[in-house]
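Technical note accompanying the year-one report. For the benefit of new consortium partners, we illustrate the data format agreed upon in the data management plan: each record pairs a sequence with a structure-token string. No post-processing was applied to the example shown here.
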Amino acid sequence: MSGKFLLGLIGDTMQRIYSDGKDGLGENLPKDWATPGKILNYRCPKRVVKLINKVRSTTDKQEQVPRPTACDGFVRLFILPSDMAEKPEAERAIAAYMADITGDEKWTQPREIKTLTLEHRMAASRLGFLDAFIALYTHESWRTSFLEGTLPVFRFFSEQVLPLVRAKQAGDRFAVARIAKTYSPLLSQEALRQSKDNKLLLQNVSKAVDGLLELWKDDAIPSLLEVLQFVASVNLLEIPEALKPHASGTIEAAAENTSVANELEDRQTERDIAIQAFLNTPFSQIEPMTEYLSGKAHFDTHQGVKGLEFERVMVIMDDSEARGFMFKYEDLFGGKPSGDKTVEATKRLFYVTASRAEKSLVLVAYTSSAERVKSFVLTQGWFEPEEVILDLSNAAALPAN
């Protein structure tokens, strides 16, 4: 069918990070087939293009060139102990260092940095919603809908309670009225039809919202359970079916009755256990979790940013914290020979993350063998000696390129 049928295969096999799909795609094609390549890199600065060319040189040997107007850019690799305490503090210090060597003050503004972690838990820990996240994420049948932000147990708080609380705290009466009209049974069509005094209905809604805000009085930090049970007690919002037993307190009351404790444990489902754990966390964790799951946070996963670009990128590589099995940076950095499936998958993931940067890139490798990692990256020619930093305390004294 030559001349009559045209098949185009477009993609970068270096960014194939999962094991599914067709192996060897693009190999052993007919000799008369054209094989165009994407030579010009429009995104990255010169230094990043040099790095990613080195990374893929042992894979497919394809090279890109930066656009003529590309800036030089900055790349740094910090190698730190995997068992060190206060990793977020170290990462803030690294960001401050990057601001110093680049002259870019936006490195001191967390929202101006895209920080990439291997696993959602790592971001949850750094953003302050780990407890609430784990409670729902560990219930496997909910995982997909939870990460997509569509799980009713989560959406009740993220789409109804949180906006209502924020609107009231901001003194936005119109937003409060809009949310109540949309979600509150107190202002449902049926309630309005049956009411002889609509003004009284509005007053009841106002009192209910005021009572809800009392949970934060004197800088108190209410739990999700406290918020849920108050909302249910005044009928302010429609409670999802899965939350109704918790809203009424029937599960908690039974748990306190030692005579039925064993029976309760037998009847209690994994779902109820997950919900209980979730409701026992502070309401304050809902806002950062909502922001993260909606893609608005400055954190994302290594796997989730293919095709995207950011001016400032920090890549956190920490196998011990990620607890994954598909990607192992310790294996990539000299632990296993090239060609190993895990090594090759991790190398491609490394390539994906590094190639997101438009101006400057810092990579943070937590490891049990700092010297081995340093030796590997220098031997491979990925970094220059002055770009590899092992001692965070001396970072400010190191020269910039």
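Partners are asked to follow this layout when depositing records. DSSP finds 19 helices and eight strands in the chain.
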